[in-house]
Design a protein that fits this description.
- The chain has helices at 16-27, 52-57, 62-74, 96-99, 102-106, 114-117, 162-176, 190-220, 223-230, 232-246, 253-282, 287-297, 299-317, 324-330, and strands spanning 4-9, 32-37, 41-50, 76-83, 86-92, 109-112, 123-126, 131-139, 143-145, 148-157, 184-188.
- The protein is of the alpha+beta class.
- The chain has 3 domains: 4-40 and 141-188, Multidrug efflux transporter AcrB pore domain (Alpha-Beta Plaits, 2-Layer Sandwich); 45-135, Multidrug efflux transporter AcrB TolC docking domain, DN and DC subdomains; 192-330, Multidrug efflux transporter AcrB transmembrane domain (Multidrug efflux transporter AcrB transmembrane fold), CATH 1.20.1640.
- Strands 1, 2, 9, 10 and 11 form a 5-stranded antiparallel beta sheet that branches. The protein has a two-stranded antiparallel sheet with strand order 3-8. It has a two-stranded antiparallel sheet with strand order 4-5.
- It is elongated.
Amino acid sequence: RLAGVVENARRDTPTVSYFGEIEALAEGIQGASDVALEQVTGLPVMTITPNLEALARYGLSIDDVQQAVAVAQGGAIAGQVFEGDRRFDIVVRLPEAQRQDPQALASLPIPVPAAVAGGEQATYVPLHQLASIEVVPGPNQISRENGKRRVVVTSNVRGRDLGSFVEELRDQVSARIELPEGYWVDYGGTFEQLISAGQRLSVVVPVVLVMIFGLLFMAFGSARDAAIVFTGIPLALTGGVAALWLRDIPFSISAGVGFIALSGVAVLNGLVMVSFIRRLLDQGAPLHEAILNGAQARLRPVLMTALVASLGFVPMAINVGTGAEVQRPLA
């Protein structure tokens, strides 16, 4: 599973050494697996660097050399051929073998101005006398996000929670790597989704609790009885936190969803119990007797409700296969 993405961008060409350092830091953190750096270099590129002194000696400009090389490599339209109503451009350029051969390209003739040549006949000078030609490793690919160049370092996380892994990686990068101006590091992938889901839960959970209390108040018509049932939620959540601690499972979005479901089960059991006790009170039974009889009469329905939900989650709680990192915290 994709655990995290470290994204780096700058307005000009990125320096791969910084990304290699981040990759090395990620490999040294506990839980890191399958750490990989996006391949951004390694593609052979032919570069032609003009010699300004030689150009000045022959009265040429950089543009003169660029135009000649552009025609030799990319071609130029020399005319058109007509076949009936159709027309085709005639493109002149060097053969493929010579375009890929630096030695052949070095012999490309560049026309010299007549004023410099000192004669009426056209004079040419080979390209290797005006520029240096070499094949060097160039960019293999250029990735962009929001108009900025980006290099990605990916990593999977096994044996620990994603949040603590990214937090440790962030501390290591901040302490050991000093990025130049124009560079920055973003943490995305599944971690970005985790942050987004956590922000949504911080809004959804309070709203759900308020709605539960509102529904209880509408059902009983009494804030006191609604509060009595509502107090079962913190006790149920305490048990859930203890279960996570005993099994050494970190809190996650799946665990948050499980806490919401647990709140529903706790409210349902309290609703069954309090409703029956109120019925006994309306029939004239004393409070103490109504509580005892209500607890005894509704013990079986409450246990059945709780056991159905608990036993249904047992396969998820003991799962160790695919999807266990989602199912176990939920159960």
